[in-house]
Amino acid sequence: MKFEYPEDREFFANLLAGGVEERLEAEFSDYFDFRHPAIKRWEFDKFRKKLMPELVEKYGGQCQLRLHPDCSKEEVYQIDHIIPLASNELNKKLRHMGRTSTEKVPPQSFGSNNLKNLTLACKRCNAFKKHRMILPTST
After folding, report:
1. What is the rounded distance in angstroms from the CA atom of residue 84 to the CA atom of residue 93?
2. What DSSP designation does 6 have?
């Protein structure tokens, strides 16, 4: 995997693989796709509806994030990317980039549309998570 910054590899190794970079490569490479986010979103929109029943069955119709106090209250579920397609979180946290007067902190392209990187989330938890890197309770 080709991360733009070495500290990003370390961040994801800590998040997903207990700090072991070799394990990140071996077990979690399918979570990543560094292509432009617009391409990945276009691809995702093509198969999202077909995939929803499979994820509902896999997770028993239960939100895997369980982040919001009103989790699953509405029982409206969405597909969530565990590693977001794009996020500016690492540019903010690791590189301490801040918003300039005219531009937001630039995002980086990370997550893939691979089934391993997708989970079921209720509408409230998915909105609460946004583009942050928060692992589902089942990972």
Report:
1. 16
2. H
Ranges of the chain with pLDDT below 70: 138-139
At 86-118, the pLDDT tens digits run 999 999 999 999 888 788 999 999 999 999 999
Q: CB within 8 A of 105, min separation 6: which ones? A: 88, 91, 92, 97, 98, 99
Look at residue 138 in the predicted model and tell me its pLDDT: 58
pTM of the model: 0.89
Per-domain residue ranges of the chain: 6-129
Q: What are the C-alpha distances in Å from 93 to residues 5, 45, 89, 110?
A: 13, 29, 6, 15
List alpha helices for 1-139, DSSP H: 6-17, 21-28, 37-58, 89-93, 123-129
CA dist 7 and 32 (Å) reads 16
